[in-house]
Amino acid sequence: MNSLFTPAFILLQDASRFDNMKQGLLHPDLSKFLIIGALLFAIGVAGVLVRRNIIVIFMSIELILNAANLNFIAFSRYLQNTGNVNAVAGQVFTVFVIVVAAAEAAIGLGLVIALYRNKETIFVDRIDLLKW
Amino acid sequence: MVLSGWESVFFWVFALTALVAGLLTIMARNAVHSAMFLISTLMSVAALYVLLGAEFIAGVQILVYVGGVMVLFLFVIMLVNVSAEEHGREELFNSPSQVTAAVVFAALLVFGLFYAVNMSAQQFAPGADTSTTERAATLRSGETRVSKISEDTQRVGSSLYRYGGLPFEIASVLLLVAIVGSVLLARTSKQEIASDNTDAEGEYVSTVETDASGDVA
To answer: Cβ of B80 and A30 within 8 Å?
Structure first.
């Protein structure tokens, strides 16, 4: 049955590689979670670098922290399967990351409000008080 | 750690939702829409946590992020005036050269991370690349090896309080400092003047309305 679908791809790659890819799609393992985490991280970095609105930049930072958390949880699960004694350490660390993220959001948004009162803008390229 | 059956279907659904909503978060013109897309990203990541057997963290993610942090974000968005950006009078992104440099940098980051994941995933899998398919074959249909809901929370809790007691207390002090700091930062200028203007004897100088006893209203 599998060979019915292979001819379209056989020009590009051999059948065993296609089977590997299909197996990876049907049975996602650790590396798939890591790739999703990496892509979320890259999206967050792009958001921080590209946007002008400081609130959206804060949201991108939350995205970056979530990508790191996803890696922690994925590795924690991986270690549980290998029978590591303290495999839930990754989940415990994730709790602390969430705590720090909440504190960071509270302080950061307080700064945004103070900044908006003084400078009447939330665009990062208008906030150039320290620029030469 | 191999998912199979419906788990893999849900994995792809939630992973793609997280990525698409994450992209829309940084591309939406309206900041409120950005916040909504970020909420769907966070919910999808919480679903991925459930697939990974971390139900407690998934619950914390939804309660703290969606229930707390994102509500804070929405309040701040409504406090500051972003209508100029929404109506297209303001540029959404930085200048084109800056955007190009940033996108090139992010693409390099993605390629580097893909390379690293590919390299390390082969090392982590015991018995090279055939082990994935073999382990999937030995997994009986319907057997998922996750969904032990109470066990996970119990283990996280005991690990947190047994090995992470001191970091736990430090985190609570950090939260207290964050509360005090954000209250201080978000004061209005009127409130600031009222608390800062004291004369040499430590009495309040009334720049705002005071009552008979001299306390600041």
So the answer is: no
